[in-house]
């Protein structure tokens, strides 16, 4: 159930992180910043598409140069109408499909200087008659502010006037252009959409949350806004200084103007340091106003006006409208993920991070989280190159939130069980096995299970007599050193210390973690233990402190393993017939003159080749026979062959031949010597019902 618990917990954490990220006031800010940084990343990686050539939109800029060149220099802007009229007429003459004026002139000098506006009014009248002029107005605090009445009249009224308002997001950044505005008595297209409709000769329509412009079908957001595809490339929208355009027209260089304006949408607007500046999604691209200037006709660029220090986060409003025109004509506006898609994306990263934190160790989980963050960023950039804006920062915020929450849940719930496992089994198992047990997440509960294990039962021969001859402090020190050797041999071979009973040690292999090779590990531990104990005994003997040998019994079989005890106090232990038989085998070492005896199940399960079958016995309390094996350390192949021949003679009931065979091996083999005595006793008093099994009547 714990894997399912982790998945459900990860889903809950991911869902909560998604809710927090998307439902808080920070959500629009994160979503907007996601888009803004994608523009920067696309530009920095060289993935920004090449601009259309030629650009559908071109700008005539009322820039700082215009203010510093005659005839504009020193002239109040209200008096510029005749100059603007000349520029508009020049653009119309050059073949502009439509001219849009992103400039509101609510006042006029006509009453003070009669005839002052005549060139401007003539240009408006001509443009209106040809359907090639659109003036701008704004809606401010519910009031519509538009051109001077005379200008409105010559432009043929409201049909050639459109709102310049843009859509500003909650963080004050413009990322979208409006398509239509609802007026009290009508619905009208926005400034850029009107220009595009006239350029394409179609009527802008809204259907199924899309802007339809002839063959182009552009997705709109829920507020009816068009997500703009801002570009860093200065050639994306060519810019011409108003002063240069006017000078070009007055010098009769019509070819230059036709090359600049023919067949294009011409927008006239301010490009000044302080006037009509907009914070847009292009704010991190570091554009300078002078970067987009096209080839000059008369006046060279005033380089003193433009410099790197003037790179800024704002762009002129007319450039936003020009970008909208280009996107609408090219059909290249961006698409944002729908709310359900954004939610699914954010949830996916929150869920995966939480699951990673709950399942993986800390370092791999942190590395995986970093990889997910990189994936979110790279995936967002890839989607952006395809025109889709994803809330990747929201996904990363959910990732971080879910990661922190996941670690909190892990510490409070998941790792609490693991800490308990570590505390419980640190005394019994090697650190490596303890960590495996903790990683498995299987905490033994009160009660147990039956599984096949190999049980270790060892005891010191003559310990009681030795302990009576030693001082208590010396005995404790020596016994601790001895038990440390036995314990290390068991736990280093994936075994567990079940209990200490004085000098006796009970161990188990194959629990609490399942170990298919528990028998082999038990035999390996026995070899290691006796090798180290031999060195320990030799060292004590050299100092005049002899140490008795250790008797060991190993048995493999089903046993009850688990936490046994009361609800208040219990121990993880092993119980059952397999344990009893291991104890019997340990005791049988006294009868057979051996130090290690193991059951046939252990011998066969270990796969060890250096073992020999010693006898077949029936111990007290068991109805069936048990094959007992022992190690063949130091014995030759001929010796082992002769021993097995004698054993087979014994099993066949030829006690005399068995006794003779064992006797010949006895001096070099204590086990053979004991078997010789056993066979001789049977030869002297043969049993009537011999079955080849030695029946033991003592434990």
How are the SSEs ordered, and which strands pair?
Blueprint: H1 2-23, H2 26-44, E1 57-63, H3 64-68, H4 81-93, E2 98-102, H5 118-130, E3 133-140, E4 143-145, H6 149-154, E5 161-163, E6 167-168, E7 174-178, E8 180-183, E9 186-189, H7 191-200, E10 205-207, E11 210-213, E12 216-219, E13 225-227, E14 239-241, H8 242-250, H9 254-261, E15 265-271, E16 277-279, E17 314-316, H10 317-330, E18 335-336, H11 339-359, H12 362-385, E19 388-389, H13 392-425, H14 431-440, E20 447-460, H15 463-468, H16 472-491, E21 495-501, E22 504-509, H17 518-542, E23 550-565, E24 570-575, H18 577-592, E25 596-599, H19 600-606, E26 611-618, E27 626-631, H20 637-652, H21 655-665, H22 670-684, E28 694-695
Parallel strand pairs: 1-14, 1-15, 2-3, 2-15, 3-5, 18-19, 23-25, 26-28
Antiparallel strand pairs: 3-4, 6-7, 7-13, 8-9, 10-11, 11-12, 16-17, 20-22, 20-23, 21-22, 23-24, 25-27, 26-27
Helix pairs in contact: 1-11, 1-13, 2-12, 4-5, 4-8, 4-9, 7-10, 11-12, 11-13, 12-13, 13-14, 16-17, 17-19, 20-21, 21-22
List keywords for this structure.
699 residues, alpha/beta, Alpha-Beta Plaits, 3 domains, nine-stranded mixed β-sheet, seven-stranded mixed β-sheet, rod-shaped, A/G_cyclase
Give the total of domains: 3
* Strand elements, count: 28
Helix vs. strand class = alpha/beta
Percentage of β-strand residues: 15-25%
Please bin the fraction of helical residues.
40-55%
Coarse shape: rod-shaped
- The Rg value, from CA coordinates, equals 47 Å
In whole angstroms, the N-to-C terminal distance is 45 Å
Major beta sheet summary: 9 strands, mixed
Quickly count the helices: 22
What ranges have pLDDT less than 50 throughout 5 or more consecutive residues?
none
Q: What does the average pLDDT come to?
A: 88
Keywords: Membrane, Transmembrane, Transmembrane helix
GO molecular function: adenylate cyclase activity
Domain Guanylate cyclase: 454-586
InterPro entries: A/G_cyclase, Adenylyl/Guanylyl_Cyclase_3/4, CHASE2, Nucleotide_cyclase
């Amino acid at each position: 159930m714990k894997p399912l618990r982790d998945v459900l917990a990860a889903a809950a954490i991911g869902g909560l992180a998604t809710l927090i990220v998307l439902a808080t006031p920070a959500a629009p800010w994160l979503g907007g910043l996601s888009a803004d940084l994608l523009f920067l990343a696309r530009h920095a990686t060289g993935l920004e598409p090449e601009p259309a050539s030629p650009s559908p939109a071109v700008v005539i800029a009322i820039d700082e140069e215009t203010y510093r060149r005659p005839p504009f220099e020193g002239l109040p802007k209200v008096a510029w109408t005749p100059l603007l009229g000349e520029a508009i007429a020049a653009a119309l003459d050059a073949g502009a499909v439509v001219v849009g004026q992103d400039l509101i002139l609510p006042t006029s000098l006509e009453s003070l200087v009669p005839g002052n506006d005549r060139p401007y009014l003539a240009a408006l009248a001509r443009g209106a008659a040809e359907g090639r002029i659109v003036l701008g107005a704004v809606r401010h605090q519910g009031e519509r502010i538009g051109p001077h009445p005379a200008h409105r009249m010559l432009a043929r009224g409201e049909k050639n006037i459109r709102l310049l308002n843009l859509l500003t997001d909650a963080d004050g950044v413009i990322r979208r252009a409006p398509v239509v505005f609802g007026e009290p008595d009508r619905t009208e297209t926005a400034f850029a959409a009107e220009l595009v409709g006239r350029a394409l000769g179609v009527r802008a329509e809204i259907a199924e949350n899309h802007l339809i412009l002839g063959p182009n079908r552009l997705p709109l957001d829920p507020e009816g806004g068009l997500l703009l595809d801002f570009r860093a490339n200065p050639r994306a929208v060519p810019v011409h200084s108003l002063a240069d355009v006017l000078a070009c027209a007055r010098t009769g260089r019509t070819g230059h103007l036709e090359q600049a304006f023919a067949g294009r949408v011409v927008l006239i607007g301010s490009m000044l340091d302080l006037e009509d500046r907009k914070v847009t999604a292009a704010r991190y691209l570091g554009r300078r106003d002078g970067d987009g200037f096209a080839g000059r006709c008369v006046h060279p660029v005033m380089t003193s006006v433009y410099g790197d220090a003037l790179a800024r986060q704002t762009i002129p409003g007319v450039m936003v409208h020009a970008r909208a025109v280009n996107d609408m004509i090219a059909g290249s506006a961006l698409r944002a993920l729908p709310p359900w898609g954004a939610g699914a994306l954010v949830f996916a990263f929150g869920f995966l991070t939480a699951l990673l934190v709950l399942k993986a160790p800390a370092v791999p989980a942190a590395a995986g989280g970093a990889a997910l963050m990189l994936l979110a960023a790279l995936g967002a950039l890839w989607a952006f190159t395809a025109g889709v804006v994803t809330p990747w920062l929201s996904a990363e915020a959910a990732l971080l939130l879910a990661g922190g929450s996941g670690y909190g849940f892990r510490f409070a719930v998941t790792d609490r069980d693991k800490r308990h496992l570590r505390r419980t089994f640190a005394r019994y198992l090697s650190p490596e096995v303890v960590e495996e047990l903790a990683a498995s997440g299987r905490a033994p509960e009160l009660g147990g299970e039956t599984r096949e294990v190999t049980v270790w039962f060892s005891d010191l021969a003559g310990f009681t007599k030795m302990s009576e001859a030693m001082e208590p402090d010396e005995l404790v020190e020596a016994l601790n050193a001895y038990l440390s050797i036995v314990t290390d041999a068991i736990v280093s071979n994936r075994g567990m210390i079940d209990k200490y009973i004085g000098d006796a040690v009970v161990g188990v292999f194959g629990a609490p973690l399942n170990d298919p090779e528990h028998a082999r590990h038990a035999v390996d531990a026995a070899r290691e233990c006796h090798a180290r104990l031999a060195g320990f005994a030799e060292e004590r003997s050299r100092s005049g402190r002899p140490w008795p040998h250790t008797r060991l019994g190993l048995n493999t079989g089903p046993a009850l393993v688990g936490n046994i005890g009361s609800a208040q106090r219990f121990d993880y232990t092993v119980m059952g017939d397999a344990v009893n038989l291991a104890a019997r085998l340990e005791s049988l070492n006294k009868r057979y003159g051996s130090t290690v005896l193991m059951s046939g199940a252990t011998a066969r399960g270990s796969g060890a080749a250096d073992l020999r079958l010693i006898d077949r016995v029936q111990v007290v309390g068991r109805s069936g026979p048990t094959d007992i094996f022992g190690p063949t350390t130091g014995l030759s192949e001929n010796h082992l062959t002769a021993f097995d021949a004698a054993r087979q003679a014994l099993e066949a009931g030829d006690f005399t031949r068995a006794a003779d065979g064992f006797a010949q091996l006895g001096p070099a083999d204590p086990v053979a010597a004991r078997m010789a005595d056993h066979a001789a006793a049977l030869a002297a008093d043969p049993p009537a019902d011999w079955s080849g099994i030695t029946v033991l009547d003592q434990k």
